[in-house]
Amino acid sequence: MTKRVKNTILGTLIFGVIGFVVTYILDGAPVWNLVIGQALGGFLLYAFILPTMETRNKRKKGDIYE
Hints:
Layout: H1 3-27, H2 32-65
Helix pairs in contact: 1-2
């Protein structure tokens, strides 16, 4: 698996677990809509947003030294 796929799976799981723990602490029971939303947000962040930001930063850094 590539680094991007590993980060996406890890980010999805971590965001889902964080959503579960936070809702369990605050409400006493997990709110599944929030847990699923957090997991979806983690997926979108690690699959699309962060890789795009990394490529933009690499391009900008390359332009400075040229």
